[in-house]
Specification:
heterodimer; A: Flavocytochrome C3, Chain A, domain 1; Methane Monooxygenase Hydroxylase, Chain G, domain 1; B: alpha+beta; Ubiquitin-like (UB roll); 5-stranded mixed beta sheet; 10 helices
């Protein structure tokens, strides 16, 4: 039945065309590999366009004291020391070069008065470190990579979704996909594959993520036998829009706080002063007066507590609302209007201004915004080698959000865009070097391809069954209520049982119509991945009996020393998902020295 | 509360409009209505979307005849008894329902020579002043929704895709031409390939731009002026030959 799919051959196939995927394709292509990039949407529309605040890199343009060592230290302290230290080191060392490279490819960052790249403050970063373009840094980054990339000679396959990876033993040898437009199948034969598919936010009801974020790379890697780590760590961004309901979850950039915005409860109290964790006490202002001096540029004043890491701020907002000090729609207020002039706000936060004006009937230069936490990012992902980004499956690489380890238990704002560039480049180089070891393409097992095709078409063959959208909605509601910001054993077990039933129902989901651009069918296929990543989050969250970073357990509210040295690892065994604990690699002495005097 | 929508259904062969009723709620946008139809009434209704925050430019359509992003179009701006008609962009071939074939735009894009920077300063930095890049940053706000292409009568009514690149790519060429570090000369491309002369400054593109880029005044007119002075002003031409200055 080989006539049911077409075949394309590339040394390297990159799946995903956001920041990491494009950077990987550029690198693979530059190092001589015949490269193809497969994107779920049109080119240039990937989720990276939604990144707002900036790219973290120790360029030291604004604060000359900054260095990669300080960036490294901030990253690990933000990640509650659970990061793979080598990834965090490479990231901090290489991020400045990657940003300068973007500039050499045409990116236009906001400038300092002496004409260099301007950097802004952000949560968890000791110094102003984020290179940015107003609040649309992601768009600038993806357009720069796209504009540079289209002239580098790699092939772009748009609106094409990968459903299955194919293996030759333990080595990846191809990817089976469908075209959205026609519903026809295509087999990409490849010597190496880079996963750069982004995150999993669509497993939750309230999310800042787009429809593409269904955990495709996580699920594809898992099904191919790869290990995944840290999946209990899902970042809830503290500031999402919450009213009106239509835009619930849409991101409000952390740059609002970086530019001086403050968080207020219903009593107009700056409540964050009450939530500074012991480990950070010396680093943050403890009075409003000191925080205000910081905003005015006093170098001796410490940072305001609104710039604590996202996990801390999200929990604090949650607590304020729960204890009755929230806004009318269950959040708190974010106020920039009383801190900066209208002209400044419109220049530095143009899309926030626009977004609230158009969708929320609110002028943020006059009134405070009503905000609350929204599912934003997954720290966990495919376990990779720090240098090459290769997974535990030979020839399978991963970079960006779908890779795990870089951010530990919590990611700092701005560290995502730099992660995409640093490890996108490394994954592209790694995949290209791997591909060069092989002269010929492996024979892709025809039976596996035919089975994959048949599986994709199955929802059309069912005469009875549920609408895949309805099952997805139930999954999102379940994850939101049982596996959200604050978790506990009984609810996680309930979630595990619910998931079993949802899986059963999803296996019988029915779609109608034909294969041409059929959203119901696409949803049915994405649902498989959403169920897999949800199971990963639930199992890992059950396993980690402590509270660390983004993972908060009501029944285990403290950091537990035994878990400080452990990653949770997920893998497929006898067709079911197992979770095991693995020791965190030891950090070398000279890096360890950077943390002397820390309390945790 | 409910609202009535009439949505284009069909492909290259068959087409027509289908009516739907949707439940409305506060702040609802047209894209929410389309999603509700997909989830509850008609899972085959095709549309593109990604960010639902006006940042990716995927959900372009024509709503009551006006080119707009569905995610940024509030339902409550229409009267409660008014039917909301949603159609695909007219300037591009329909693939299915609200999804159109915009691949031509990507072909035009590739014809524009890429950024070619001058070498960095001796300290390795690339210095630019904010006031020198404000203008280009305006152009780089473009989210490639192609609504400007859709509304442009050269493309929409006269279908001159063979000779005219459209407002989007004149904006892109302007962004490159006005980049303080760029050294490439794209005026021949602007004139010959993008066909800047076709634009007769009706400013429809500026009117529909969801990013409020002043396409005609800030991008197209300056490019047209450069083309004129480069190709049609004999004194300027002679002076450039003498001094060797391209820009």
């Amino acid at each position: 039945m080989s006539d049911q799919y077409s075949v394309q051959e590339h040394d390297v196939i990159v799946i995903g065309a956001g920041g990491a995927g494009l950077r990987a394709a550029i690198e693979a292509s530059a190092s001589g590999a015949n490269t193809g990039i497969v994107c779920k949407s049109l080119l240039g529309k990937a989720h990276t366009v939604m990144a707002e605040g900036g790219i973290a890199a120790a360029l030291a343009n604004v604060a000359s004291e900054d260095s990669w060592q300080v960036h490294f230290r901030d990253t690990l302290r933000g990640g509650k020391m659970l990061n793979q230290w080598r990834m965090a080191q490479l990231h901090a060392e290489e991020a400045p070069e990657r940003v300068k490279e973007l500039e050499a490819w045409g990116a236009l960052f906001d400038r300092t008065s002496d004409g260099r790249i301007l950097q802004r403050n952000f949560g968890g970063h000791r110094y102003p470190r984020l290179a940015h373009v107003g609040d649309r840094t992601g768009l600038e980054m993806i357009r720069t990579l796209q504009d540079y990339g289209v002239h580098q000679g790699f092939k772009v396959y748009m609106e094409c979704t990968v459903y299955q990876l194919l293996l030759d033993g333990n080595r990846v040898c191809g990817a089976l996909a469908y075209w959205r437009e026609t519903g026809k199948f295509v087999l990409f034969k490849a010597k190496a594959i880079v996963l750069a598919t982004g995150g999993i936010g669509k497993a939750y009801e309230i999310t800042s993520n787009s429809w593409e974020y269904t955990g495709d790379g996580h699920a594809l890697a898992y099904l191919a036998g790869a290990d995944l780590i840290d999946m209990e760590f899902v970042q809830f961004h503290p500031t999402g829009m919450i009213w009106p309901p239509s835009i619930r979850g849409t991101l409000v950039t952390e740059a609002v706080r970086g530019e001086g915005g403050v968080l207020l409860n219903a009593k107009k109290e700056r409540f964050m002063f009450r939530y500074i964790p012991d480990a950070f006490k010396g680093d943050f202002a403890d009075t409003e007066e000191e925080a205000d001096r910081w905003l005015k540029g006093d170098k001796n004043a410490r940072r305001p507590p609104e710039l604590l890491t996202r996990d801390v701020v999200a929990r604090a907002i949650n607590r304020e609302a729960k204890e009755g000090r929230g806004s009318p729609h269950g959040g708190v207020y974010l106020d920039i209007a009383s801190r900066r002039g209208p002209e400044y706000i419109r220049r530095k936060l143009p899309s926030m201004y626009h977004q609230f004006k158009e969708l929320g009937n609110l002028d943020i230069t006059v009134a405070p915004m009503e905000i609350g936490p929204t599912t934003h990012y997954v720290m966990g992902g495919v376990k990779v080698d720090a240098e090459s980004c290769e997974s535990t499956v030979e020839g399978l690489f991963a970079a960006g959000e779908c890779a795990g380890g870089m951010h530990g238990a919590n990611r700092l704002g701005g560290n995502s865009l730099s992660d995409l560039l640093v490890f996108g480049k490394r994954a592209g180089a790694g995949a290209s070097a791997f591909a060069k070891k092989f002269r010929d393409f492996s024979d892709v097992p025809t039976s596996a391809v035919n089975d994959g095709c048949a599986e994709m078409l199955e929802p059309f063959n069912r005469t009875q069954g549920e609408n895949p959208f309805a099952i997805t909605e139930e999954l999102q509601k379940m994850m939101q209520s049982l596996v959200g910001i604050v978790r506990m054993e009984s609810e996680l077990k309930e979630a595990r049982d619910c998931l079993k039933q949802l899986k059963e129902r999803a296996s019988k989901a029915k779609v109608t119509g034909n294969r041409q651009f059929n959203p119901g069918w696409h949803q049915a296929l994405d649902l498989r991945n959403l169920l897999i990543v949800s199971e990963m989050i639930i199992l890992s969250a059950l396993e980690r009996k402590e509270s660390r970073g983004a993972h908060t357990r009501e029944d285990y509210p403290k950091l537990e020393p035994v878990f400080s040295k452990l990653n949770t690892v997920l893998r497929k065994k006898n067709q079911s998902m197992v979770v095991v604990r693995e020791a965190l690699p030891d950090m070398p002495g000279q890096l360890r020295k950077l943390f002397e005097g820390d309390k945790s | 509360m409910t609202a009535s929508l009439r949505v284009f259904r069909g492909d290259a062969q068959t087409s027509g409009y289908k009516s739907y009723k949707v439940d409305t709620y506060e702040g609802m946008v047209v894209l929410d209505a389309i999603h509700q139809i997909q989830a509850k009434q008609d899972a085959e209704l095709a549309c593109r979307w990604n960010c639902k925050a006006g940042k990716c430019g995927s959900c372009s359509a024509e709503i009551n005849g006006r080119p707009r992003l569905m995610c940024m179009t509030r339902m409550d701006q229409y009267g409660s008894d008014e039917e909301i008609v949603v159609s695909p962009m007219k300037a591009f071939p329909v693939i299915k329902d609200l999804v159109t074939d915009v691949s031509w735009n990507y072909q035009v894009d590739k014809k524009i020579p890429p950024f070619k920077p001058k070498p960095p300063e001796s300290d390795g930095t690339r210095r630019m002043q904010q006031y020198d890049i404000d203008r280009v940053q305006e152009f780089r706000k473009c989210i490639e929704c192609f609504l400007c292409q859709n509304v442009c009568h050269i493309l929409r009514d006269h279908n001159r895709k063979d000779a005219f690149g459209g407002p989007r790519f004149l904006v892109k060429a302007a962004a490159l031409e006005m980049h303080p570090l760029d050294t490439e000369d794209r005026l021949p491309i602007v004139k010959e390939v993008l066909g800047s002369g076709f634009c007769n400054i009706t400013k429809c593109c500026t009117e529909v731009c969801p990013e409020s880029i002043t396409i005609t005044d800030n991008a197209i007119i300056p490019l047209k002026e450069r083309v004129v002075s480069n190709y049609y002003d004999p004194i300027a031409r002679f002076w450039r030959k003498l001094t060797g200055k391209i820009k």
